[in-house]
Design brief:
alpha+beta; two-stranded parallel sheet; 3 helices
Length: about 80
């Protein structure tokens, strides 16, 4: 709402969808700056991280290191 009050066009998209970000950036907005708010999931593609969130920098417990290593190698 604050950015709208300053005349910005604000659009929220799935931040993991590059096509959606590209598409919204192509829409003409004459005379207005564009702010794209990317809604993302910090554990996207790594379900082992989900129980550790919402920490921004999760620490992998020693007892799970091997499990994470196997997952990493399978990627």
């Amino acid at each position: 709402e604050r950015m709208h009050a300053f005349g910005w066009e604000c659009v929220e998209v799935d931040g993991h969808n590059i096509d959606a970000i590209t598409e919204v950036s192509k829409t003409p907005r004459p005379g207005k700056p564009l702010m794209i708010i990317c809604d993302t999931c910090p554990w996207q593609g790594i379900p082992l991280l989900k129980p550790m969130m919402p920490k921004h920098y999760p620490r992998i417990p020693k007892e799970q290191k091997e499990e994470f290593q196997k997952f990493y190698e399978s990627m």
